TrEMBL record:
Record keywords: Amino-acid transport, Signal, Transport
Protein name, entry field: ABC transporter permease
Span of domain Leucine-binding protein: 27-364
Domain of life: Bacteria
Any one GO BP annotation for this protein: amino acid transport
Gene3D superfamilies referenced in this protein's UniProt entry, alphabetically: 3.40.50.2300
Pfam families from the UniProt entry: Peripla_BP_6
InterPro entries on file: BCAA_transport (IPR051010), Leu-bd (IPR028081), Peripla_BP_I (IPR028082)
Family classification: Belongs to the leucine-binding protein family.
Signal peptide residue numbers: 1-22
Organism of provenance: Bradyrhizobium centrolobii
Amino acid sequence: MKRILSGIFAAAFALGASAAQAQDKPPLKIGGILDMSSLYADITGPGSETAAKMAVEDFGGEVLGRKIQVLAADHLNKADLAANIARDILDNQGVEMIYDVAASATALAAGEIAKARNKIIIFNGPGSIRLTNEACGPYTVHYVFDTFAQANVTGLAAVKSGLDTWFFLTADYAFGQDLEKDTSNVVVKTGGKVLGNVRHPLNTSDFSSFLLQAQASKAKVIGLANAGGDTVNAIKQSAEFGIMKGGQKLSPLLAFVTDIDSIGLETAQGLLLAEAFYWDLNDDTRAFSKRFAERMKRPPTSAQAGVYSSVTHYLKAVKAAGTTDSAAVMKVMKETPINDFFAKNGKIREDGRMTHDMYLFEVKKPSESKGRWDDYKLLATVPGNEAFQSLEQSRCPLVKK
């Protein structure tokens, strides 16, 4: 009996010691650098933080015996602040992976900090193609969309349908400039013409002078190379000017379901737009979106759905690699296909681009919608190898040619 009790006590002690050791391990921290309060807050912001937390919860809350913590900080759409946050969370707070970063100028700044420290950074909200071209890094992943794919999917469809003269209304920073450039290339290559452009400051409230220039161009399409609140304001004010009633089409080159909800179907009906995700595509997208909506009271944007998918992919890679070492984890991430509600046969290439299907949607008429958030009808599914820039075109120094 003494021997039995002794064995029980020894086993209990061993289990207690093991649990104590697990508790002694520092948590695995992942950090979001987000727009929590400005014009991209609906696209990413609190919804991206929620999506990351859902991914961690669904994964089980820990990996390699370490609890997983989700941090989030507001970069206020300032590149210098994004860089300072990245520096602080990596150097002082022990963050091992950065997610989202929500805007191109802020992403480019934070990306350089992560690159210098050999840390993984996954971009979900930013769009600039530079992130997988000149600014690529061995531990950089561009997950959801980029300016090339947005231009390729939307611009190509528009020109082929006869909308072959364009004027661009462009947000004057990295994302807007890249989106205009990439769409212009598609328009010209497909046989269309670019009649002009005008640049506007980020977070513009009054678009009247810019819209008058676009209207005067007589272009068949006014391409909106902006996002978030800027896109919403431009479309609403164009309706006030009667631009669409006058026969010109507006093409938001990056728009999200939250933007269409803000604009309203009466004004937004007929818009063509490219998206990486839509909540009502299939049973899997609807199931995730229902869970997300229980917390956020609305469906996720493509950026927020991408946060869940990418955080899950990262954590699976950490578990498989048996370490959080960036090189080992990234190797697994690039070798492992992504198959979930967000992407089918997704693949992270050597330049960091995650290729997946993109979708061309038309915004429904009010009479076609069954209720709030029932905003899109699917026109086309574009395979990832057709939607995104090819490796042969890449300017990423990591790509072997």
